[in-house]
Structure formats: structure tokens, C-alpha cells
Amino acid sequence: MKKKVATIILNRNLPKVTDKLYNQIKKYNKNETDIFIVDAGSIKKNISKYSTWIADWKQAKKKGLRFGRGMNFGLSKLYEENRFYDYEYFFLITNDTIIKNKPIIKDFCKIMEKHNYLAILSPCSKKWGEKNLLQKNKIKYFWYIHNNAYFLRRSFLDKIKNIKKPGYRNFLFDGKNFRGYGIVSEIILKAYKLNMAAAITSKIWVEENENYLLKMSNLIKTEPYNQNLILYLREGITWMKKKYKFQSKWDFSMHIKKFYDKFFQKNKELLKYKL
Amino acid sequence: MSKFLKNLIKKNKTALGIGPMSLNCVKAAISLSNKYSFPLMLIASRRQIDSKENGGGYVNNWNTESYSKFVKKFDKKKKIIMSRDHGGPWQNNLEISKKFNLKEAMASAKRSYEIDILNDFKIIHIDTSIDINNKKVPIKKSLERFFELFEHCNNFAKKNNKKIFFEIGTEEQSGTTNNPDELKETLDNVYNFCKKKKFQKPIFVVIQSGTRVAETRNVGSFESPLRIENELPVEIQLPKMIEICNDYKIFMKEHNADYLSNHSLSLHPRLGIHATNVAPEFGVGETKGLIDVLKKYKLSKYLDEFYEISYKSKKWKKWLVPDSKATKIEKAVISGHYVFSTEDFLILKEQIKSYLIKKNFNLDTYLEKQIQKSILRYAKNFNLTK
Q1: Most B CBs within 10 Å: which of A66, A122, A131, A132, as the mutation test of the B interface?
Q2: What is the ipTM of this complex?
Q3: The pTM is what?
């Protein structure tokens, strides 16, 4: 049976965690999604037994791929293998994502089918302030989303994908920004520019298990949490200055909000989803 | 909009509130506002300056009455707007140390406000969000207390022919103004009360905007990508809350903008932040100025003595981040301005000044200039000097 969704899980040196998430998604969503695992330069013994593609070049082994490059790698592989157009949606998640034991993929699809304008859908977290905005109305459109799990519409990706030299550096996210501060905002900006939208829903909950980053950076073979955060911010700001001449996240965020407001001016029937 | 508000809140500018951290700080604020002709709110907390009856405060051994006289005397161009910051029950140490119950604390807060009003404080911030243990008060109770104080101040001002304005809300997690729904609910409640009692609506509402001061830096999310548990990302929170304030025709006030970068400050007018409070940065700035002078003139004995007085005050405690690695000296820098009016420091300062005057160096003039530079950074970024 042809499945609508490709789920891509990003792993680096946490095979048990990744395998558990793989099995959990498979158990509750097997008719809805194919599952692919991108291995971001893990050492041999830490490669997930379900790995689909392995980033085994020197740089990836040394530093990993991070969210942007990792997902680019997986998506570009699907494209290369002529499987990109087999799917209507892509669910991109990191291995430290905690999901519920239920058919969440079906729920995602239902929402995307109902909301034709949606390019990007993020599940909500019980730890986020956004949950308070999603009580009466369980879905709202946002100009800023910060998560490690996104459900994306293929027709949107099709419009913004980079196929000149498709690969881990550029297929969807801008891989020049290695740690990725601001790269999802850039995708959201592209969505609103295309008269599409980005939303968060409280119909589906996910959590991030930050313990892996906080306490197991040695095992993952990445920088300690605080050091990573400094680099993440520094690289991101440098990237947005160079690419967009933005001086800070605020310039970026307010720029996206302009397009967000325009989107609702054009699509007044969707105003109930506006923040 | 009244003439007073038109003067204070202007398009493409962010109005500035300065904590009166010391005598030099107050002088610096007055000098600058007079020199550049822009209005400046001096936002005194009750711990800094309270009524004589309530024991004054830690700043310059002033009480509300003597402080007001001082400001009025030096503010030749009448640019200073004396304001009460975080007035309300248990916002003064006396009400806590004497273990006032609710009735006593409310009565004490009312008396404190009365003295403010009689001494020409113009903007009154009513903060009923905490109890005696500095714990969050449930919203319903907090609002009940707010209405009682709001009504009392309104009636007292009217009786004494004084025109005052109000500020509501708090930057801490209080359940009143922390997310869009809470803010709307609070404003609806307050506006209904105003309509019923025929009171003028408050002019400012304090909104958490991702700023928080700890040690000597801003650790909030305004400049960082960090998520704070159960809070909206500031990228969503701030524009949304400003939108609501504009809809409700109330001005948004940010607290704790201390130590933000020039770029972040320059964004304030563009983001539509109507007003901002800054305080500890100026106190710490004065302390650092003093330390620089003592180092320059190799007065290490005096410097050590200052560190000791400040460190022993323990006033740095509330400013530390969890698991702080701050050294003893860094802690002394954090709490320096709290001891500027203590007997021990005043004796020490006299010795320092006597030495420096022989070197033709006026310590207070230098310190005041240092604070002026700090204030000017805000004034310029907020477009107040144009």
C-alpha cells in the first residue's frame, strides 16, 4: 500500500533511542508512513540498525549534520532515488523527540487536508507557552516556531527545494548555517511569501528529551550544551546578517510577521487562525 | 490624549524610566533630561525611597518627602516625572520584617501612596502580585487588592486636587499579563471597574518582554534563542502583546531592559515598545566607576574595604543566577549601590574624597558623568535626544 508520508529521523550516536522511536512510530503508524533514518556520522557501533542513509564523510563524522543538513541529506536522498514524489508529506524529527503511543501521522494528515494553505505544521509541547493559545482553537498559524519536529507539505517543498546540486548543504534548509539558528524561520518566511502558512497544533503533542543534549553530549560526540548554544547563536546571527542584512533575530522575526499579516489580509476567511 | 501623555509617549520613541539608584544617579538623570529636554520618569521602588513614616529607603537616606523636594529643586526645566515603581502591599521591607497581615500591609501601602501623591508623584504603579513571602497571589485576590488601592489613590488624588496616572501589571509570572488571554482579561476587568467608578483608565501596563536581569547581565530571552518553560517565545509574545495594548489604547511598559545591547535598545522604538524601565545597570555602573578610580589611584586599602562592606551587605543574593560562579568581588560589584548610604561607606567615601581632592579630582562629579554616559546610551537608542 502506498503511504502518504515519509518520516525522517535524525540519529547521531544514540542507536537505542533512535530504534525505540522508529519502532514506536512503526507500531502506531505503519499504514501511514515509511520511516527513514539519517545517520549523522555516528561511530560504527552507534549506527541505528534501521539506518537508511549514512553520512560517513570526515566532516560529518567529526561534527555531525545537525537538523538542517541532516534533513537536507535525507530529503535529497529521496529525491535522488526518485522517491520524493511518492509522498505527500514529510515528517522531520530528531531522535530525542518523545511522541505519544497513538497514530499521530493520521492526525497530521487530517489537519493538512483540512488546512490547504498549510505548508508547515508543528506539534505542540506541554512545556511551551503556545499551549495556552491553543486551548479553544487547537490550531493557530504562527510567524515563529521553534521545534525539532515538523510536518511539511510536499507541494511546498517542491516549490522551494534546491535541485541545482541537491545535497546535505542546500536541498531545503540553508546548510551554510551549520547549527541552524534561524533556518526554520527562513522556511516559514518562504511559506508566507508563497501565500502558504505555518501552524502549531495542540491536537498532537511532542516533547524534546533535552537530557541527551544536556547530559550526554560526550556520548553523542557533540559540544557541551552551553558551548553549542553560544555557537548556535553566533553562527546564526552571522548567517542572517550576511544573507539578509538582518542585525538580529528581531529584524528577521518582524520581517516574517509582515508577510504573516499580509497573508491574513489576502485570506480573510482564515482570520480565526490568526494569533 | 492629555498633554502630559503626548509629551511622554511619542511615535518612534521609547520613553525611559530610570531607577533612582543613588544621589549621583538622580543628579545624572535630571542633568541629562534638562540638557536634552526630554521627559524622564524616575521610578522609585518602595525599598529605594518610601515615606518617612515607612522608614525611607536605602537611597541617599531619602524619604519620599525629602527626595521630592530635592528633585523639584534641581529639575529646573520640569522634565522629571516622579513615579512609584512596584507600590503595593509587602513591597517595602518594613511590612515584611514587622510581619504585617493583609489589612496592615494594605493600610501601609495606602499611606505610602498618599505621601507619593501629596509629594507630586505623577505615575503610580500598583503591584499586588506578591504576598509577604514574595509568593504569587491568585489573580482574583490580586485584582481585588488592586481595585482597593486604585480606588483609594484615585479618591485621595481627587480630594487633594492632584492629577495622577496609573501603571498596572508586573513583569514576573503573575497570571495577570503574561499571555495574550490573561492580558485581555485583566484589561477588561480593570476597564469595567474604571467605567463603573468613572475613573481614568491606567496609562501603562507592564508586560514581560523577554528581559530579566541577573548578576550584571540581561539573561532574558530578548537576545537569546532560549525557550523559557511555559512562556511564549518572545518573538511571538512581544509583538502580540503590543498589538493588544494598541487595541486597548494602553501603553506597554517593559521592565528590566538593563544591559541590553545597543542594537536591541535601538529596536525598541521600531518594535513599538512605548516605555522601558532601567535600574540596576546605573547602580552597578556607579560602583564600577568608583572601583576604576580606586584602582587608578592605587587606593587598594580603600578598595578592599569597599568590597568588604558591599559583600557583607548580602544584597547581591537576590541577583544571582542558579549555581552562580560569581566571585566575592563580583558579588560586591552587584550590591555596591545598596551600601552607598550606609554609615560605614559614607565614612570610607569621605576618606577617599579627601585624598582625591588633593589630586584635584572630584569623585562625585566623575561618578555622575559615568552614569550620564550610561543613561545617554538608552536615550540615544530610544531616539529621545533627537
Answers
A1: A132
A2: 0.90
A3: 0.89
